[in-house]
Amino acid sequence: MPIPPLTEERRKDIVKRLHHVAEDHRVALRNIRRDANEHLKKLLKDKAISEDDERKALDGVQKMTDGYISRLDAASKTKEKEILEIK
Q: How many CB atoms within 10 Å of residue 40?
């Protein structure tokens, strides 16, 4: 059974959905970062780590979050190009 090619309108709808999914994943990453930061602050409060260790860990968590968000954005842009490309 032949399947007709996607229309431009349908492609744009799919790209909109892609943007929503990507934003949901960005929010999830930020929530993970928030939880990690709260855990580090609790460790500092309990005197399990020093202030320097907390600062280094917070910076590390931020760098990891930025890295994963940039990877997510790159994958999203690649997929958007692929969806909008007419074959």
A: 20
pLDDT at 86: 77
Compute CA 28 distance to the chain's CA centroid, rounded to the nearest angstrom. Answer: 7
pTM of the model: 0.85
23-28-33-38 Cα dihedral, nearest 10 degrees: 130
Residue for token digits 């005197």? 47
Contact criterion met (CB below 8 Å) for 58 and 38: no
Residues of the chain with confidence (pLDDT) below 50: none
Q: Report the C-alpha gap between 24 and 18 in whole angstroms.
A: 10
